[in-house]
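Listing S7. Sequence submitted for prediction.
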Amino acid sequence: MTEIFGVPTQALFGQLLIGLINGSFYALLSLGLAVIFGLLNIINFTHGAQYMLGAFFAYFLLNKAGLGYWWSLAIAPLASGAFGMLIERTMLKQLYKLDHLYGLLLTFGLALIIQGLFRNEYGSSGLPYPIPEELSGARNLGFMFLPNYRAWVIFASLVVCVGTWFVIERTKLGSYLRAATENPALVQAFGINVPRMITLTYGFGVGLAGLAGVMAAPIYQVSPQMGADLIIVVFAVVVIGGMGSIMGSIVTGFALGLVEGLTKVFYPEASNTVIFIIMAIVLMIKPAGLFGTQR
């Protein structure tokens, strides 16, 4: 068996694949957080619960309505986004003129309520969600076997992340969104409904979390705690990339997933803390994050 730096090739590439898959979810979730914070100035601690809701929506659609993975991939993010817009319209809009701390506390409390309700109803153990038949099986790459579903997750995450970056940074809609965060009164004067734009933007960010939840369901199972276990890492990814930076969230999410995978190979004891160590170093050197700018 061939080795690289004393590590069997299959084990090394296997961990890199796991890291890339984790990085896909880090990127998607941190992208949603970056969209919400960058355009709305809200630190959305409910994001982990909304990721969990996406997975549960897929589970309900399968077991209650008989709709499979592909329908869930379309419907669950919309349902998550609609739920997010309801939260924004009924609660968050009251806090826009207050300190960021109030929004953080509100969303943190909402996350605890949502997770508690689902944990009381479904327990803490994971509920199985099957891989779609079209994506079952694996491909032999010679040095490792690549499961088709995991390859799909990586590809889909890249497409969604790059597409979101393009819309926000390179289109007229994106320029309106950015302008609305800097000078909402001026944008409103041009006939654009800024409150509606804010609501739709928040719903889109939440929809990204719901989409990640649907894609995660066949890999990690559906559990009330799945978001709570992930959201702290995702916040670290956002801080490292730069709060509100779209490109920073994408690049940092995938890169830190790979770093985490490599750490599990060469120094497993540090695999659970390496991201937070990197965050501490980045904050000391560049407090705004690698891609961020001081506000």
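Caption to Listing S7: primary sequence and predicted structure tokens for the chain studied. The two ends are 52 Å apart (CA to CA). The beta strands are 3-4, 7-8, 138-140, 145-147.
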